[in-house]
Write a structure and sequence with these properties.
- This protein is α+β, with helices and mostly antiparallel strands and about 140 residues long.
- The protein has two helices and eight strands.
- It has one domain: Yope Regulator, Chain: A (2-Layer Sandwich), CATH 3.30.1460.
- Strands 3-4-5-6-8-7 form a six-stranded antiparallel beta sheet, covered by helices on one side. Strands 1-2 form a two-stranded antiparallel ribbon.
- The relative contact order is 0.16.
């Protein structure tokens, strides 16, 4: 693991190519509903103790990193788009969208409030988190 000395984001490889952005996560929530902030806070508190785990902001997203980026949160107008990866397509009514990222399957869950941060959603994210730690990635 390598931490960029300029932006303090954590990456898998030393000197990994990226664009340094010094952005506060709160900036992504400007002019967004309070429900999204509460949803993010609930989500953050539910997953931050999964170790290893670090959080940083890019210009348009919040990135959670274990040994690799395992959760990318985009703050939309009225929802949070949670993207995580897994080795195969996951079948769940909570998955809004699927796609491929190289050999990984990207899964998107969208939430609008803290009540949607439930055990089923957290189990899906835990699958993505564990996958990020595996050798298969």
């Amino acid at each position: 693991m390598w931490t960029c000395p300029k932006c303090n984001r954590v990456f898998k490889a030393r000197n990994q190519s990226h664009t340094c952005v010094n952005k506060d996560i709160g900036e992504l929530f400007i002019n967004r509903p309070d429900e999204l902030v509460l949803a993010y806070d609930t989500l953050y508190n539910s997953v931050i103790d999964w170790k290893p785990n670090s959080v940083g902001a890019t210009s348009k997203a919040i990135v959670f990193t274990s040994s690799k980026a395992w959760l990318i949160i985009r703050v939309m107008t009225d929802k949070l788009d949670l993207k995580f990866y897994y080795q195969e397509p996951i079948q769940s009514e909570m998955i809004e969208k699927r796609g491929m990222m190289g050999k990984k399957h990207a899964h998107h869950v969208r939430i609008a409030n803290e009540e949607q941060v439930n055990s089923e959603m957290l189990e899906l994210l835990k699958m993505g988190y564990k996958f990020s730690l595996s050798k298969e990635v």
